[in-house]
Design a protein that fits this description.
By secondary structure, the chain is mainly alpha-helical. The chain has two domains: 27 residues; 64 residues, no CATH class. The protein is built from four helices and two strands; from the N terminus they run αββααα. The chain is globular, with a radius of gyration of 19 Å.
């Protein structure tokens, strides 16, 4: 009979940890589906780059490669609008 309360506690803790992990993953969900540098589809295995919008909101910019991530990290604010519009920086600058 002592096994049942232990199993209930274990199930509750496991569910809580899973829900927390899902919330944490959503926190870092990229706002874009294409890399703002290359226009290629973002690679979900590469962590997105943190950036701030003009009003101070934190967003995450997805990238297609480590090289793109490195470039964006140098000046994340430059890529915010392109990422939010799901365009490349070249398209954004050309007004397309």
């Amino acid at each position: 009979m002592r096994l049942l309360p232990s199993l209930c506690l274990l199930a509750t803790l496991s569910f809580g940890a899973t829900a927390w992990a899902a919330d944490a993953a959503d926190e870092h969900k990229p706002v874009n589906t294409v890399c703002p540098i290359s226009g290629k589809k973002i690679d979900p295995t590469i962590p997105p780059v943190e950036a701030k919008t003009a009003d101070g909101k934190t967003i995450w910019i997805g990238v297609c490669s480590e090289g793109s991530a490195k470039k964006i990290k140098k000046d994340p604010a430059k890529y915010v609008k392109a990422a939010m519009d799901d365009k490349t920086i070249a398209q954004e600058e050309a007004g397309k």
